[in-house]
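To the wet lab folks,

You asked to see what we're planning to order before we commit. Fair enough. Below is the target structure as tokens, and below that is the sequence we designed to fit it. If anything looks off to you, flag it before the synthesis order goes out.
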């Protein structure tokens, strides 16, 4: 299970970096806490589906692209 968390986090980080955003910018745009974004990107947190959808929408990608 931890492997999927790390993979999704790695993908979120990649898309975020492509936009040139900091974790703080992504968190602000997605209405999430910056520390939570960091934990997701490091694979430390199980991301809920609602938050996954918020992040995907904010990054202008589909949820499917994060898997």
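Sequence we intend to order:
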């Amino acid at each position: 299970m931890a492997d999927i968390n790390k993979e999704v986090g790695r993908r979120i980080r990649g898309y975020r970096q492509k936009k040139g955003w900091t974790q703080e910018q992504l968190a602000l745009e997605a209405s999430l806490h910056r520390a939570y974004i960091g934990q997701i990107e490091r694979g430390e947190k199980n991301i809920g589906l609602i938050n996954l959808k918020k992040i995907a929408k904010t990054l202008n990608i589909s949820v499917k692209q994060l898997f």
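Structural context that might help your review: The chain has four helices and no strands. The two ends are 13 Å apart (CA to CA).

Thanks,
Computational group
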